[in-house]
Structure prediction request, 378 residues.
Amino acid sequence: MSAAAGAPAGAAGSGPASPKRNRGRKVAVIGAGSWGTTFAKVLADAGCDVTVWARRPEVAQEIQVAKRNTQYLPGINLPKSLQATSELERALAGASLVFLAVPSQSLRANLGELEPYLEPGAVLVSLVKGVERGTLMRMSEVIADTLDLEPERIGVLSGPNIALEIAREQPTGAVASCASLEAAQDIATACAAPYFRSYVNTDVIGTELGGVLKNLIALAIGIVDGVGYGENTKAAIITRGLAEMTEFAVPQGADPTTLAGLAGLGDLIATCQSPLSRNNTAGRLIGQGFSLEETKEQMQQTAEGITSVAPVLELAKERGVPMPIVQQVQMVLEGTMAPKNLAPHLATEDDVPRPEMSFGSRPGLWARLFGRTKGNAA
Ligand SMILES: NC(=O)c1ccc[n+]([C@@H]2O[C@H](COP(=O)([O-])OP(=O)(O)OC[C@H]3O[C@@H](n4cnc5c(N)ncnc54)[C@H](O)[C@@H]3O)[C@@H](O)[C@H]2O)c1
Ligand SMILES: O=P(O)(O)OC[C@H](O)CO
Prediction:
């Protein structure tokens, strides 16, 4: 397949990124919101020949002519080489890698629209951190369900990636994941800008779920922040949140080490700490007393956590995984729990105190997490 042709695993460990490695490589970014535009800049700074597709012609026009996207990235100058269009056919012509940066609930429809223009052998990479309502599918599953692509042509990229910080070229990392390690390395190489480094794995489920689940915990953090609770409460929620994320993801096939890495813990920290996070911000507004509707009205950008709560809880229920924090977030969003009760409810949930990790009763999971059985713990 074309994706891995001649590309070294350079982004995962061969020193500073060299734009020369990507010279002449044509890639497309679908979606020109804050992340699509920022990621297009990353790819251009990594030396790729990038065209970003914007749904609205005026946004495409501003990027193309002024090299700005003032609505989503105020004050950021975009690379001169960055091309923009509102025509999918133009965006996709010649592109061997297609990065998807649209809201999760519109991805399926967008895929249907772009399918006729995809180059043979093109690899699709989801940058989206949501779950589809109704089908409960992750975005890589939506891609597989919509287009007739082998797993080697479906990748995801996720990590602590607050768009505006990256647009300002503040350094960070991410995880590029695909069933084919070669393809993951190719994706990582394409976006190896001097301030953006990607590690690789083949754990698509873990990488993708890390990005989805941290949004729900960031909503919880925003809520308690809005209430006025301090750092102990937030540390407890982040820590218990990571346990909840891991307990949800591992039975679905995720590698626990992925959840402990950049796509899990790393993204959880960034999203829970940053006032720039939309999920964190949405939670804070709700914690301050705004209703969900009022909060949605105030948010000008996508806060995926709000739409992911219900499908994630549905999946958790199907699989018998308890998710007390996410459950409480849903109750606060629905208005059936006061924001101030979120953390006390977490702290007083059990009549009988229990260990922090519940894997002890599931030997297989314990072994996968810690590489040994509970009985022979050192
Ligand atoms: N912003 C970040 O820091 C960041 C970082 C990593 C991942 N993400 C993920 O990237 C995805 C996109 O988020 P974003 O931050 O760019 O959101 P955004 O709200 O900034 O932009 C969304 C873009 O999608 C467009 N859009 C809306 N409805 C559409 C439709 N029906 N069809 C096509 N386009 C449509 C909007 O016009 C806009 O250009 C989300 O899943 C988000 O979780 C965001
Ligand atoms: O602004 P948020 O809350 O959507 O988070 C953005 C990124 O996912 C952080 O990695």
